[in-house]
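Why run this: before we spend reagent on co-expression, it is cheaper to look at a predicted model of the complex and decide which construct boundaries make sense. The entries below are exactly what would go into the expression plan.
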Amino acid sequence: MTDRRDFLKIAGVAGAGLVLGLRLDAKTRPGAAAAPEFAPNAFLAVRPDGTVRITVPKTEMGQGVRTALPLVVAEEMDLDWAKVEVINANPGPDFKSMQTGGSTSVSSTWGTLRKAGATAREMLKAAAAARWNVDLKSCRTEKGFVLGPGNQKLGYGALVEAAAKLPVPKDPSLKSPRDYRLLGKRTPRFDGPDIVTGKAIFGLDVRRPGQRFAAVLRSTVCTGRPMAWDAGKALEVPGVVDVVKVPTGIAVIATNTWAALKGRERLAADTTWELGSAQDFNSADLETFMREALTGPGEEARKQGDAEKALVAAAKVLEAEYSFPYQAHATVEPMNATVQIRPEGAEMWTGSQSPNKAQATAAAALGLKPEQVKVNVALIGGGFGRRLGTDFSTEAAQVAKAAGGGPIQVVWDREDDFRHDLHHPATLHRLRAGLDASGALTAWAHRIAGPSILHSWVGQKTPSQVLAEANGALDIPYAIPAIRVDYAEVAAPTPLGWWRGIEIVPNVFARECFFDEVAHAVGKDPLQLRLDLLGNQGLVKFGRDEADIRRLKKVLQVAAEKAGWGRKLPAGRGLGLACHAYDGRTYAAEVAEVSVEKGQLRIHKVTCAVDCGFVVNPAGLEAQVEGGIAFGLSALFTQITWEKGHTVQTGYQEFPLLRLGDMPEVETHVVQSAEAPSGIGEPPVPLAIPAVLNAVFAATGKRIRKVPVDLSAI
Amino acid sequence: MAAFTLTVNGQSHRVEASPEMPLLWVLRDRLGLTGTKFGCGQGLCGACTVHLGDAPVRSCKTRLGDVGSRHITTIEGLDPHGAHPLQKAWVELDVAQCGYCQTGQIMTAAALLAKNPHPSDADIDHALGRNACRCGTYLRIREAVHAAAGQRREVIP
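The model came back. C-alpha cells follow.
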C-alpha cells in the first residue's frame, strides 16, 4: 500500500507489464561520430575495444543503484566488471519512468535488466558460433569472452559487428543463481574513486560555458509571493547582472553564487509580500486540531471484527497518545538545477528522483514539448524523497526563461532548503488496546490524525489516501481478534512530501511502542508476546499487500538472538525491539541497546535482521541498513515547527543531524532468501525509533510517547 | 574589489574579488574546484572543509581577505590520483553513500592524521564530530580513518 504507488498511478507514469515503461526493444542512439556498437537494447552497448557501457534507468542518490543495476546486467552478460562504464539514462521514449523511490530500484528493474543482459549474451554467443561454424550449445561465455568447444576464444569487442546483425531473441535463458559470479558478492560502489578525489559531479557542480548563478528571493512564508520590490541595491553588488521575476519569487542573477546571495540579501530589504494562506499557520493550532480529530470521525483503513465492541467488552483498556512532528529532508546538498534554453529546446542538469516529471514540468513552464527538454541526471547529494519534487527544477527553468536563456544554475541556500522543503507532516496517534480477564489482547484501535501527503502531492483528496496515511499502522502483523485502524485528515497549508521511510516511520513508532506497553501491562516479555501473536500465521492480506508472517517471525527471532535478548544487563541499560513487514515485501527487525545515565541517552548498538529476498550486493545492503538506522535515530531529536507560516528551524543549528560520536554500532544479519529482491533503502528506518524508545523503557521504566524526545523527562 | 594571489594545491592563482567573498565560492565559482562542497554556508556541516596551511577550515566561513599567504589544499590537491591513504581506505571500505559530504570528511580526517598519526576512536569522534553525513556513513568513516592510520604506520616507520 505504498502511497507512492498511488502517486505513480495518478501521475500516469507507471508501466504495467514490462517493468516501469523500460523498453527492452529500444536502441540507444550512439553519437554521430561514434564507432559501431552492439546495442541490442537501451541498457547496454558493447564497443569494439570490449568495453561495455551500461545505462542506469534509476537515479543514484547514495543507495548504490549505479553499482547494483549494472551488476545485474553484467552478471547476465558475463562481463569483466573492470571493463564496465556506467552512464545515467535521460528521460525519453526509452526511459519513460525513471522515478526513484519507495525502495524499488532493484525490484522494479530486476527482470528487465536480467533479460537485457541475457539477450546480449545470447547474441554474442550466436555470433561467435557462426564465425567458428560450431553448435551454439557448445559455446559458453566468461568475463567478456565467448569460448568455443575447441580452444576458440573471442572477446565481445571482436563480435560487435556480427552480433549487431543478428535477430534479437525474444526469450533468452537467464543464468541460474548457482552460476552467479558477481551478484551476491560484495562489490564496492562504482563511484567511490570519483567521490574521494572530488571528481564526482553533483548537480551543484555542473559548470557550462558562460554559466551564471542565481539565488531566488522567496517569501519566508511558504505560500508568500512578492508584491513590490526595488532591484536597485541588488544590482549595485559587483557580479550581479540581472534581477528577474519568476512565479515563486525574484531571482538575482550573478557571475558567481556569492554575488547572487549578496544581491538577494539587499533585495530582501526592498521587497514587500503577499503572504498567502499559510500566514496564520502555527504548530500549536495544528496540534489542537489533530487532537480533536483523534476522537472525531475517521476513515477506515482496516477493519477486522468489531474493535469498538470488543473494547467495551474488555476487562481492561489501555490507551495512549503518541506524537510525531513535521520533519525536514535536510539533504547536505541543497536543491539546485542548471538550465540552458536554446532556439530548438532546453537542456537541464539536476539531481532529480523524478527525471520524467522534471522534464514534463520544465517543458510546461517553457511552453515546449517534453521531448524538447533534455534532462541530464546528476549525482544527488542526498534525496530521501525530497528530490521526487520538481519545484526546484521547474523554478530553474522559469529563471532561465526570464533571464534570456542561461545557462543558469539556481542555487538554494540552507535556509531556503529548510523553509521550502516538502516537509513530512506531523501526526498524532490515539491507540487503545482491550485485554480480557486473562490478559489476552482482544482489541486494537489505532487512530491517526494529521495532514495527508498524498492530498498535498496531487492537489486533491483521493480515495486511496487513507491507505497511504495508515501505512505501517493498518498492517499491524499481530493476530488480534478485533482491529480497527483509521485516519482523520487535518488540513495544513504547507506543501508536503515523502521522507525516507514515509508514513511508516510515525505509524510504526506508535504501533510498536504501544505494543510494548501492552506487553509490559500484561507482564509478558515484549519479544514473547510478539512471537505469540505472530503465531502460526502464513500469508496475510493487508489492504492491497500480502505479507508472509513466517518471514517476519524469522527476522524477529534472528535479531533477538543475535542481540542477546533476555540477557542480564546492568542497571540503567536496556534492550528494546521492533519489527515490521514493509509493504509486504521486506521483513526487518531491530534490537537497540541503550543506557540512560544522568539524563544522557546513549545508544550503544542496533542489531538488525532483514529478509529482502535475494541480495544483489551485500556491501550495498549493509550500507543501507547502517544509513537507514542513522536516518531514523537522527529523527529522535529533530522537528520542524511553524509560527505564522514560517518554519522556526532554518538550519542545522536548530535541526541537529546525528553526528559521528552519536552513531551506535550496527550489526546486520541477512536472512537468506530465494525470493526475488525486494528493497532495503527504507525498511530499516521506521524500526530505529521504537526499538530505542522501547529500550529506554526497559532501562528506566519511563515511557516516551513523543518525538522529538525530551530527555529531561528521563 | 581587490586583487589576491592564492596558492591552491601548489598552483598560484590571481583572483580579483571582494575580500568579503568566502573562499568556498572563490574555489568553486572562480577556480572551478567543485570538489569542495556547499552544504550550509554557516560552518555547521563541514562539507566545505579545506586546509589553510595545515589547519582544516570551513571555507564557507573563511573570507578571501583573511587567507593571506597561507597555502590552500583542496580535495583535488590532497592526492590527484586518489592515492592518499585516506582516499584508498575510503574506497576499500566503501565508505561513501551519496558522497556529497565525503570530501569534507576526508579533508578533516587528513588534517587529523597529519597531527595525530594514530588517533583513538575518541580522537576521531572529536575531530570529525562536526562533519554531518545525512546518509549515515559514520561507522565506516571511523573505520577508514583507522585503516589509513595503519597504512601510514607502514609508510612512515
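DSSP finds 19 helices and 29 strands in chain A. The two ends of chain A are 36 Å apart (CA to CA). Bring this page to Monday's planning discussion.
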